[in-house]
């Protein structure tokens, strides 16, 4: 009986030690996930800004840009 009690508490202490190690790593995991999310949003924003710049550069100039204002008589 004593051996069973010792075995049970030994296994329990190992499980608690493993759980503590896992819980100690969670803040780092959440911080890494936040940094990855921020990097993803920055990448998407940079791509959309680049696409907008390319669209503006490839757009044909409007006819009104090259015209001079009419001269006053």
TrEMBL record:
Domain of life: Bacteria
Region named Disordered: 47-73
Name of this protein: Secreted protein
Species of provenance: Streptomyces hirsutus
């Amino acid at each position: 009986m004593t051996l069973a009690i010792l075995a049970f508490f030994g296994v329990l202490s190992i499980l608690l030690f493993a759980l503590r190690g896992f819980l100690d790593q969670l803040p780092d995991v959440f911080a890494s996930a936040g940094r990855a999310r921020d990097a993803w949003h920055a990448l998407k924003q940079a791509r959309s800004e680049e696409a907008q710049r390319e669209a503006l550069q490839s757009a044909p100039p409007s006819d009104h840009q090259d015209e001079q204002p009419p001269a006053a008589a």
